Every structure is written in structure tokens, then in C-alpha cells.
Amino acid sequence: MSVRSEKVGSLIKEELGVLFQRNFSMAEFGFLTVTEVLMSPDLKIAKVYVSIFGDTERKNKSIAKLQAQKSSIRSMLGHAVRLRYTPEIIFYLDETLDRAMKLENIFQKIHEKEEIKETKNNSADA
Asked: Is residue 47 located within the same domain as residue 82?
């Protein structure tokens, strides 16, 4: 990825975050965070990864609403960011945080089982 596409992606990420904060209600979309924006080499397509707090149904509804309002979001972005060409936006659900939480729960269960085994071994030795 070129430096230019990284800079444009970072700018779009920041502007989308502000745009979502100002124009989209938490009640309707949930807690929405733009986690990453990847630009195509020609800067005409922006892959926007969003993290949405809530259950699977809430996430799917929010992504569907974002997809439905994609043209108005692109228009607002075009007014906020001065580029020769306002990129087409493609939204993706970023589930990295969900995966990390699942792994953390697994590690916690393993740790608890090891503590139980140690406690049993220590009480058997006494």
C-alpha cells in the first residue's frame, strides 16, 4: 500500500468517525466504530471496516442500514474531504474484537481449570 493511499484512508477513517458521531444515533445503529479503511491503489474504492457493539442481529441490522445509506454517506464524505474523486464505500463488519473476547474467555477457562487442578494436587499432598 502506498503512502498516499494510507494517508487518504486515515483521513477518510477520521472523517467517517466524526460523520457517524454527528449524524447517526446510537439507538438506531448501536455503538459504531470505524476500525480501518483500506483504499484501492487508484483511490476510487474505500473498504471501511466497522465494529458494532451488540448481538449478531443488531450488527446485521446496522450493516444493512449503512449499506442502504451508502450514497448519502459518500455525499457527506465528499463535502468533508476534498479529493479529486470521492471513493465508493464498501462496508465490512469487523469482528476482530469479538474474536479476541472469545479467545480471552477460552484462556480464562483454561486458567481456572489449571488452578482447580493445582488446588486438588496441593490438598492431596497435605
From this structure: yes
